[in-house]
Amino acid sequence: MGWFSDDAAVAHLGALYLRIVGPVYTCFGLGLGLFFVTQGVGRSVAAMNANAVRMIVSAGGGLIAVYWFDLGVPGFFAAVAAAFCLYAAMLVHAVCTVKKPDAAPAC
Questions:
Q1: Inter-axis angle of helices 72-96 and 8-20, to 10 degrees?
Q2: With b meaning 16 or more CB within 10 Å and e meaning fewer, what string describes 22-42?
Q3: Residue 5 predicted with pLDDT over 70
Q4: What is the pLDDT of residues 13-22, one digit of tens each?
């Protein structure tokens, strides 16, 4: 953060983000890796839907946290973290429910 600004408020918000969202970046990494797996097993639509849900939960959950529950910036960051977890869970489900083909096609 020091590369972009010397403002203490920027450093404070960045540290808060990393404390709340940082631990679940593993879920985002898992989801990103499985995103490419789903393309290989023919479940690209499931991956696209999971990504859309992630963005909707981040934005919608963030708005709800900020405006309905008055949780401020930490609430928004919590919504982003929850969206990362949901993204990973949806992609794990998409990959784990792939059915093995009955037989190899004849050439």
A1: 40
A2: eebeebbebbeebbeebeeee
A3: yes
A4: 999 999 999 9
How do residues 29-78 score in pLDDT, each as one tens digit? 999 999 999 988 888 899 999 999 999 999 999 999 999 999 999 999 99
Give the DSSP per-residue string, 11-57. HHHHHHHHHHTGGGHHHHHHHHHHHHHHHHTT-HHHHHHHHHHHHHH
Q: Residues 73-83: pLDDT tens digits?
A: 999 999 999 99
The domains of the chain are located at 25-95
CB count in 10 Å sphere of residue 18: 13
**What is the spatial distance between Cα 16 and Cα 77, in angstroms, rounded to a whole number?**
8
Assess contact for 53 and 31: CB atoms under 8 A.
no
